[in-house]
Amino acid sequence: MMLLTLSTYAVGKSGYSGVIVVLFLLLTALIKGSLIIRDFMELKDVSLLWRLIMYGWLWAVCLIIAVTYFISL
Fold this sequence. Notes:
Number of domains: 1
Number of strands: 0
Distance between the termini: 31 Å
Largest sheet: none
Helix content: over 70%
Low-confidence stretches: none
Order of helices and strands: HHH
Number of helices: 3
């Protein structure tokens, strides 16, 4: 988790931009979000409905950000 956080920080500090960077940052957010949902929120052993709600929300937010970014190009 710390490596993912440091990598996004490094990308931000370096000033890179573009489609590849946005996709990398969204992928990093998905991985970190999944780890938080599974481990920190301890939802790995709950019913399928709760996991679908939480992971669905995470994917929906990332997809909305991606679509908004690509529309603005």
